[in-house]
From TrEMBL:
Gene3D superfamilies: Glycosidases. It comes from the Eukaryota. Belongs to the glycosyl hydrolase 1 family. Signal peptide: none annotated. Residues 90-109 are annotated as: Disordered. Pfam families: Glyco_hydro_1. InterPro entries: GH, Glyco_hydro_1. One of its GO terms (molecular function) is beta-glucosidase activity. GO terms for biological process: carbohydrate metabolic process. SUPFAM superfamilies: (Trans)glycosidases. This is Beta-glucosidase 1B.
Amino acid sequence: MTNKPILDRLELKGILPSNFLHGFASAAYQVEGATSKDGRGPCSWDDFLKDFPDKGDDACRSYDLWEEDVKLLKQFGAKSYRFSISWSRVKPKGGASDPANEAGIQYHP
């Protein structure tokens, strides 16, 4: 097995410009899970999906497995990564003047 990033091993040469920035992205609700962990408050998606079997309670468990996610990004040769910040994790009560959740802030250094 090679240590060369997966993107370098794919047959993309000649297809994409040499200065093409291949990036990755995620959305907090879709990947984090841990909807009731470390003081996270409810968000609009929690309310919207409460009557459906597929919710964000577990998602991809990125909240707990973020180090593995970073390893995967490195394996894929990621040069950029865009992620969203869960407001309900940082401000569990939802208001701008409400107290911040220190655990939520520490998760998003």
